[in-house]
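Budget justification aside, the reviewers requested a transparent look at the raw inputs and outputs of the sequence design task funded under Objective 1. We therefore reproduce one unedited record. The lines immediately below are the structure tokens for a 241-residue chain.
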């Protein structure tokens, strides 16, 4: 089982958070293209399940925060795919399906399962698309990851946690996870070395400032999640000199 992508220059690989959330409408095809063009080694996106079983790429459980026109309120799980298409996002963007996103992204994809009901359908889609070699199914929800692992033992999974709690560390071992993503302030070299010893990579999130990046580098992370991949790549280059 391969591990998630890492930078070829010996520095952390850059994961574009919701594509490139700082410079494009998050979790849209435009954001994914921007993140990839701006040097992201991988793209992270979020998945919910609609009322009629479509896999929708959106972070929140409702459309309320990101909708600016058209349908501006409602729970994703209570709306059909057709109703979700009435939601207008910033810059005239629309909510993409997971199938559309996977077809558009050319680098590694980190599929974050936001609703447990989406766990198996999303994994099934990734497998059917032949993308197991460049997709990682991730979540804060350990039970959702258990469903993924039971359905597709060959798929790569990644645990996300605000901090490297005993529960998160146990889940990495239980699921043979390829990565543990932890908020940067909770990372240090000892934690990273321990996770490495268990066979997993460490991702620091979110990296929004130069101080965040320095902290992540000092801890020895393998990946960083950034809202602005272009800034992050430039900042990494500056820190090399």
């Amino acid at each position: 089982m391969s591990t998630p992508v890492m930078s070829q220059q010996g520095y952390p690989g850059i994961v574009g958070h919701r594509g490139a959330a700082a410079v494009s409408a998050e979790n849209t095809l435009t954001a994914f293209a921007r993140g990839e063009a701006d040097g992201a080694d991988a793209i992270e996106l979020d998945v919910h399940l609609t009322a009629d079983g479509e896999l929708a790429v959106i972070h929140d459980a409702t459309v309320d925060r990101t909708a600016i026109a058209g349908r501006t309120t409602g729970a994703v799980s209570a709306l059909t795919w057709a109703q979700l298409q009435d939601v207008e996002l910033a810059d005239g963007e629309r909510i993409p399906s997971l199938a559309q996103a996977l077809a558009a992204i050319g680098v590694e994809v980190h599929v974050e399962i936001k609703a447990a009901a989406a766990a198996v359908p999303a994994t099934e889609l990734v497998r059917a698309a032949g993308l197991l070699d460049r997709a990682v199914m991730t979540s804060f929800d350990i039970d959702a990851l258990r469903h993924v692992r039971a359905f597709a033992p060959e798929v790569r999974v990644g645990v996300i946690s605000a901090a490297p709690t005993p529960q998160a560390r146990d889940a990495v071992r239980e699921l043979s996870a390829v990565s543990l993503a932890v908020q940067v302030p909770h990372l240090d070299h000892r934690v990273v070395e321990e996770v490495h010893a268990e066979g997993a990579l460490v991702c620091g999130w979110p990296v929004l400032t130069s101080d965040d990046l320095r902290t992540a580098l000092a801890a020895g992370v393998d990946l960083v999640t950034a809202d602005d991949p272009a800034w992050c790549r430039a900042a990494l280059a500056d820190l090399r000199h």
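The radius of gyration is 17 Å. The chain has a mean pLDDT of 95. Computational costs for records of this kind are itemized in the attached budget.
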